[in-house]
Amino acid sequence: MTTELFIQYCFAGLTYGSIYAIVAIGFNIIYNTTGIINFAQGEFVMLGGMISISLLPFMPMPLAIASAVVLTMVIGALIEIVFIRWLKDPSVLRMIIITIGISILTREAASHVWGENIRALPYFIGNEITAISILGARISPQVLVVIGVCGLMVATLGVFFKTTSVGRQMRACSANRTAAVLCGINTRNMVTFSFILSAGIGALAGCIMSPITYSQYDIGTGLAIKGFTVAIIGGLGNAGSAVIAGLLLGLIEAFSVSVVPLAFQDAIAIAILLIILFVRPHGLFGSSEAAGLKEF
Amino acid sequence: MDLLQVDKLHKRFGGLQAVSDVSFGVRSGQIKAVIGPNGAGKTTLFNLISGALPSSSGRVLFKGQEIQGKKPHQVAQLGIARTYQNIKMFSGMTALENVMVGRHLQSRSGFVSSMFNLPGTRGEERLIREKSMELLGLLEIADVAHVSATSLAFGQQRAVEFARALAMEPEILLLDEPAAGLNMYETAEVGRLISRIRDLGITVLLVEHDMSLVMDISDEIVVLSFGQKIAENLPAAIQQDPEVIKIYLGEE
């Protein structure tokens, strides 16, 4: 393998990897406050891309993206308020099935609104053939935008959870719900807020990846599976290791192209998911004691 | 007027009358203890006051306002803080961060400004941090502020819990067996801390099994047995009460 090809694969892997990481972080945020896996997480990514594309004729791109993110956050809040909030002590299984239902519902609604056409936002810098040279490899600037924005999102979330009052309250809810209530925290609002936050980061990822990966009404499912794989590899509820696991999966997929046919790319992710679930169900970086305390 | 008033409170679990017609008041500034044998209904009583359980009938009045039927986080927001018998720490957070969570009620900045870390909230964040540090100092655990809360010794975790409850600036603190699981030395420490909390002007209502602690620090004692109040008096009088001696030591 030449150096150029190696670098090319690396960037491809990092691009997809950072998207997977964002989807996995979305899973983790909701998992931490509710104990459920929100299988509609991929739909947030789809909605972000599709809404921004629809808004683009009416406004400049940054505004279209911002509006798409805000709208998706509103949808996230509505989903939680309509389908989850009023449930009294729901079982984990019931909530998961509800999220699968929401995912199907959203996808069908999207296919009616946008049809089955493949769309895309234009490239943020230059166009399809603009490329910059890094160590001889030719990289689209959009790739750097994706990696940069995802990195920024992860850093911002880190600061948010570490140094703000709301962030601390969310961590408190996931660490010990009873104690959070004792501190006067309305845990239901925190659950709604976690849906809003997950929807927001998913939607932003959906916008920035759109020029490279395209947007279509049904891209959510595939992303949800990849994101779920990453969340499991990293250990459920662990946002930091989701980043490492995401990049890892992205790189493995990218390099696998040089060994197996492209069609096998998804099979590789699912094979890894199965191996992890069999061998190390608490994830590569999670501790088994912590996993033992969790419901799911 | 009593700060907290329990009025003819009943709680029935199926056929079991866990709390039966219990009434008493807690005056502002005092330490009041609820004692009684296992299964007397002490923890149930606490759960009724703090909103963790709905009562079957009766009223709970805080500053003259009825609070029964409110949700636990609403009761907490009114100024009634409580601790559980089992220590409930936020794992993955330092002692200081645990206390800072308790402080959030005093934070005025909303979701949006907090998310974007605006300058106003940064100043507030500093205030929260300073006040929380001060409380850790008051409870003599400032030296472990940056240690993960769940790795602290039991007695220290108890102190972190007190600090977290105090961070809410409550008017009354409900302590459910604060000395449970502590050794003699730590129990004495906790007693000292509770007296210090009272000296801050915070009323304390506690459930406790450790008689030496209860007799030491309480201003008044309520005795429960099988869900009913059988005595309410000063500690010295409670120690002489034949009815109380009977339920603790059995009949002669």
Automatic annotation (TrEMBL), chain A:
Top-level taxon: Bacteria
Transmembrane segments: 6-30, 42-59, 65-87, 143-161, 195-215, 227-252, 258-279
Molecular function GO terms recorded: transmembrane transporter activity
Family: Belongs to the binding-protein-dependent transport system permease family. LivHM subfamily.
Primary localization class, coarse: membrane
Record-level GO BP terms: amino acid transport
GO cellular component, as recorded: plasma membrane
Localization per Swiss-Prot or TrEMBL: Cell membrane
Keyword S-adenosyl-L-methionine annotated: no
Bilayer topology term: Multi-pass membrane protein
Record protein name field: Branched-chain amino acid ABC transporter permease
Keywords for the protein's UniProt record, in alphabetical order: Amino-acid transport, Cell membrane, Membrane, Transmembrane, Transmembrane helix, Transport
Organism: Candidatus Desulfatifera sulfidica
UniProtKB/TrEMBL annotation, chain B:
Domain of life: Bacteria
InterPro entries: AAA+_ATPase (IPR003593), ABC_AA/LPS_Transport (IPR051120), ABC_transporter-like_ATP-bd (IPR003439), ABC_transporter-like_CS (IPR017871), BCA_ABC_TP_C (IPR032823), P-loop_NTPase (IPR027417)
Record's GO cellular component terms: plasma membrane
CDD domains: ABC_Mj1267_LivG_branched
Alphabetized Pfam families for the sequence: ABC_tran (PF00005), BCA_ABC_TP_C (PF12399)
MF (Gene Ontology): ATP binding; ATP hydrolysis activity
Domain ABC transporter: 4-251
Keywords (A to Z) from UniProt: ATP-binding, Nucleotide-binding, Transport
Gene3D superfamilies linked: P-loop containing nucleotide triphosphate hydrolases
Name listed for the protein in its UniProt record: ABC transporter ATP-binding protein
